[in-house]
């Protein structure tokens, strides 16, 4: 039997609705599932079971108007000015016998970028990043198996190999080629595994707070949070739990973000959308070692320019892990985003956008020396601003740079210790960084590191 948070209520559907769903199922199997406007209910999966049929009755999300309002507040809080406020198109596609959901933010005709979320997250973790880049890139975000509005694996198969096979099928179905692949945590590991065999199809690869080597203490904290399977009485209870786990976030924004990742149970309680059946079993040392070896094997085969991003406050992925990974890659470099923990795109989207725009700018992937280190200082309390999801503060004209992410200019390997500080918004700052509200700070290794 197939389980999934998006299965339909078969026994409660009238006959005409059942016939309509059967026709939709045939279209999905043929790969012709139509575009769904944002906010519509996803199509049912290929197979269904009674238990998850009942759970599907409580699927919730933001309405289009709520989504727009959320983006406006979130972008203002992050210090970002979105070029235009256009919601993405929601699509469903059947791959390898399972239904997958993805968002297409546009803009068609621009270089494509595919975003993969972390474990326990979903496509909406990339909303601000995609909305900010949509005029520069064709941004796509995929709900991986068992997450968001994609189907759960009936066999609880969530191995890296299966995720990579899903990604391969998705890339083929959409006809992507010479695209940029961005993956965070789980999505980064899956992206790396796929790139090891297919990097010639990539224009560039971006790995966010992940690599073959991660810190088990930090990973266990995340596993404990995402594995908690106790339904709660209200969304506010989940907000309280999430704030205790990551106090960087703003409660109002967090509540709306969580609605993308929660479902209501038949008894009125609330539960995560993602599949938790395989979680909470503890780390299998043998499985961890197999994954580690698989990823290091992939690293040796990645030929495209690769950016490794680390959240400065992450306890999952440390400086030395990013440094080792970037030096082992044939064309790698790494950045550190201040004011961010493991979920960089949520904690400091402005800082991440500075790093991505620099890397993806014309000649960007080729312009940086292989193995060199970039440092990206973000919006940080008591420093140059608040991390994303803190309450927005009024800004006066000309002060935007102080409210946005600051960029640490790259230093060559032979001159890492030397540097000088350029504070404020420099008139020599490249236009693409001025557009992101960045300032340049060149610092020494000693002044950058925090005690």
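Sequence proposed for the structure above (451 residues):
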């Amino acid at each position: 039997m197939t389980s999934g948070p998006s299965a339909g209520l078969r026994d409660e559907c009238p006959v005409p609705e059942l016939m309509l769903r059967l026709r939709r199922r045939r279209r999905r199997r043929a790969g012709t599932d139509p575009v769904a406007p944002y906010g519509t209910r996803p199509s049912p999966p290929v197979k269904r079971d009674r238990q998850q049929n009942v759970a599907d009755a409580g699927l919730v999300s933001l309405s289009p108007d709520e989504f727009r309002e959320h983006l406006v507040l979130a972008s203002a809080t992050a210090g970002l000015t979105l070029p235009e406020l256009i919601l993405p198109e929601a699509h469903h596609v059947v791959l390898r016998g399972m239904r997958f959901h993805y968002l297409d933010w546009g803009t068609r005709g621009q270089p494509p970028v595919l975003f993969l979320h972390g474990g326990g997250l979903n496509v909406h973790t990339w909303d601000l990043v995609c909305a900010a880049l949509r005029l520069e890139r064709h941004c796509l975000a995929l709900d991986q198996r068992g997450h968001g509005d994609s189907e759960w694996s009936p066999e609880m198969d969530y191995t890296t190999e299966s995720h990579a096979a899903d990604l391969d099928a998705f890339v083929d179905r959409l006809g992507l080629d010479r695209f940029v692949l961005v993956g965070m945590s789980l999505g980064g590991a899956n992206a790396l595994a796929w790139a090891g065999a297919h990097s010639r199809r990539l224009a560039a690869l971006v790995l966010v707070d992940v690599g073959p080597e991660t810190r088990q203490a930090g990973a266990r904290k995340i596993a404990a949070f995402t594995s908690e399977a106790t339904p709660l009485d209200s969304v506010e209870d989940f907000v309280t739990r999430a704030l205790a786990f990551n106090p960087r976030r703003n409660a109002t924004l967090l509540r709306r973000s969580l609605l993308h990742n929660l479902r209501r149970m038949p008894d009125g309680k609330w539960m995560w959308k993602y599949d938790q059946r395989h979680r909470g079993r503890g780390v299998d040392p043998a499985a961890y070692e197999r994954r580690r070896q698989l990823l290091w094997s992939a690293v040796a085969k990645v030929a495209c320019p690769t950016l490794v991003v680390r959240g400065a406050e992450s306890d999952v992925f440390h400086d030395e892990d990013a440094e080792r990974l970037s030096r082992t890659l044939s064309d790698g470099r790494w950045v550190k985003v201040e004011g961010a923990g493991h979920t960089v795109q949520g904690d400091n989207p402005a800082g991440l956008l500075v790093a991505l725009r620099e890397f993806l700018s014309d000649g960007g992937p080729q312009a940086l020396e292989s193995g060199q280190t970039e440092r990206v200082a973000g919006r940080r309390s008591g420093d140059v601003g608040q991390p994303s999801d803190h309450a927005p503060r009024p800004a006066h004209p000309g002060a935007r740079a102080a409210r946005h992410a600051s960029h640490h200019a790259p230093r060559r390997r032979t001159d890492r210790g030397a540097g000088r500080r350029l504070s404020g918004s420099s008139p020599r700052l490249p236009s693409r960084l001025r557009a992101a509200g960045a300032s340049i700070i060149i610092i020494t290794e000693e002044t950058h590191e925090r005690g």
